[in-house]
Amino acid sequence: MNETPILKAENLYYTYDNEKSHSLNGFSLEISQGKKVAFMGANGSGKSTFFLCCNGINRPYKGTLYYRGKPYDYSRKGLLELRSKVGIIFQDPDSQLFSASVYQEISFGILNLGVSAEEAQKEVEQVIEKLEITPFRHKPTHALSGGQKKQVSIADILVMHPDIIILDEPAAALDPKHTVLVNKIVNQLTQDGITVLMSTHDVNYALEWADEIVLLHKGQVLMHGSPLDVFTNKEMLEQTNLEQPAVLQLFESLCKKGILDASLPLPRNLSTLEGYIENIHTISK
Hints:
The protein is α/β, with parallel strands linked by helices. The protein has a single domain (7-244), classed as Rossmann fold (3-Layer(aba) Sandwich), CATH 3.40.50.300. It is built from 11 helices and 10 strands. The strands form 2 sheets. Strands 6-7-8-3-9-10 form a 6-stranded mixed beta sheet, with helices on both faces. α3 (102-112) crosses α4 (117-130), α3 (102-112) runs parallel beside α5 (146-158) and α5 (146-158) packs parallel to α6 (176-191).
């Protein structure tokens, strides 16, 4: 018996210009609990619009969203409950952060859920430590670096113990150091069993990280499958202006040259491909 998907979109339509065009155009998708799902596609394909619908910020004018099998409740109480379970981290943290200090910022959401001050403090302290925020916990939010703001915006959501966390281009505008840190935090989330939806243009990262890839095109799901199924479908990639991950291109090239055996499992990261090459050298010796 199949489990009820944690999130289901059924024939969604959404427009920003009175139906002259559709950012979502018959969008349907099911997401299972605990999955790491990368959303990919050209700018304007509907990724951010769908994410805003998932959190209840946007309400589709047609179609239905389901959380754990129940249709979305757009009442004030229903949205408050939904947003404690489905959290979104915006591409630009300044769109999310509004409190004077880091500690106040992280405390706001959980206190708004009616948690006692004592319990809220305990939860906030735990998430501050977990996300390595302690060195700047009392700083004004406006004085933080881009990477620190991203950490705090994730803490905002994580402190409420969501079932789903949505990240819209989490590494956008970050330096390499903070990109590594944010990726580390994302890995922690998935290890904790949280369902993570992420939009990204980084095919190499998506191949290694994701359980599933969703390709979007003109407000619809063009393809939904495993990373290897999606990234070996060159026709679908071309429609979404994406290239194959470098490791798959290199593997294909080495197979064509007879250096590697094409029957080997497709590699999802560079270390696996390096292992194949090292094994050739070991055998040849």
